[in-house]
């Protein structure tokens, strides 16, 4: 049986921890990664109208900022990759949605695919998760899960002619 997520009080007082905990979504007592990914959907909706170059720039900024946020928060908490740190889910979901077809069915499909790869962690994602430490390690496995999910989403879009 999985332990319930225990968010430290600093999540609500420290802006760095608040961001690393996905604007508080990572404080969910169960399935914080899923809640973090769900909280990333409004950010995606805000960024989706950007031209591709703008979207990619935003994803790069979110990812680079996440390395620092996740590293700082994990050091402050003394726990590598605390379950409540979900900024990496934000970045991974945004990677999943690069050049995705528009519409809610694709948003949901991207969500499901990202969670699938983030939870399953096929090679090399699992290897990265175990071998790369610090903020980069926290972020990198989710970015890779986002790449896997993006490839699967694009294959679905191609196979269905963009209709879901």
Spatial extent as radius of gyration: 15 Å
Discrete helix count: 7
| Oligomerization state | single chain
Using the alpha-carbon principal axes, give the shape. Answer: globular
Structure commentary:
This protein is mostly helical. The chain has one domain. It has helices spanning 15-20, 32-47, 52-77, 87-96, 104-120, 125-131, 134-159. Helix 4 (87-96) packs across helix 5 (104-120). The radius of gyration is 15 Å and the shape is globular. The relative contact order is 0.15. The model has no long low-confidence stretch (mean pLDDT 92).
SSE inventory with pairings:
Layout: H1 15-20, H2 32-47, H3 52-77, H4 87-96, H5 104-120, H6 125-131, H7 134-159
Please sum up the structure shown:
The protein is mainly alpha-helical and 164 residues long. The chain is built from seven helices and no strands. The model has no long low-confidence stretch (mean pLDDT 92).
Features of the shown structure:
164 residues; globular; 7 helices; mainly alpha; single chain
């Amino acid at each position: 049986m999985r332990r319930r997520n225990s968010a430290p009080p600093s999540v609500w007082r420290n802006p760095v921890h608040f961001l690393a905990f996905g604007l508080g979504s990572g404080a969910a007592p169960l399935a914080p990664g899923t809640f973090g990914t769900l909280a990333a959907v409004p950010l995606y909706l805000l960024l989706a109208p950007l031209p591709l170059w703008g979207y990619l720039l935003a994803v790069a900024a979110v990812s680079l900022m996440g390395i620092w946020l996740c590293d700082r928060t994990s050091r402050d908490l003394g726990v590598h990759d605390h379950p409540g740190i979900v900024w990496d889910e934000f970045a991974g979901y945004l990677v999943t949605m690069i050049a995705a077809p528009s519409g809610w069915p694709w948003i949901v499909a991207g969500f499901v695919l990202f969670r699938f790869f983030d939870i399953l962690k096929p090679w090399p994602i699992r290897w990265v998760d175990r071998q790369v430490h610090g903020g980069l390690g926290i972020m990198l496995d989710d970015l890779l899960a986002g790449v896997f999910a993006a490839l699967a989403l694009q294959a679905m879009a191609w196979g269905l002619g963009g209709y879901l």
